[in-house]
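Hi Y.,

Following your request, here is the sequence exactly as I used it, all 122 residues.
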Amino acid sequence: VQLQASGGGLVQAGGSLRLSCAASGRTFSDKALGWFRQAPGKEREFVASISWGGGSTYYTDSVRGRFAVSRDNAKNTVYLQMNTLKPEDTAVYYCAAGATQHAIIVGEYDYWGQGTQVTVSS
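Below is the corresponding structure, written out as tokens. Let me know if you'd prefer a different format.
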């Protein structure tokens, strides 16, 4: 599975962005999908995940209520809608695919996209 993340950019605090992650190479409908982010000088951290069929989602506390993850298996694409963005959301965002649903550890994911930069100005 190859993953290609897009949709990042520069936005003011309080604004919104929608990230997309397109998969190719094979179907990913049997894969759990996750979003991670990595700020400069920090470790990559879990942001959100969605189950194989899209029926359940999970978020880290700092984004719950502001971010929403969804997937369209027909399009082999997963999305991360980010609202009410804060400067502390600034990071490179990565999508990932793996076998374990709602895994929050980097090592649980087998496939990674290249990352897309999100910058939130104050």
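The radius of gyration is 13 Å.

Thanks again,
Q.
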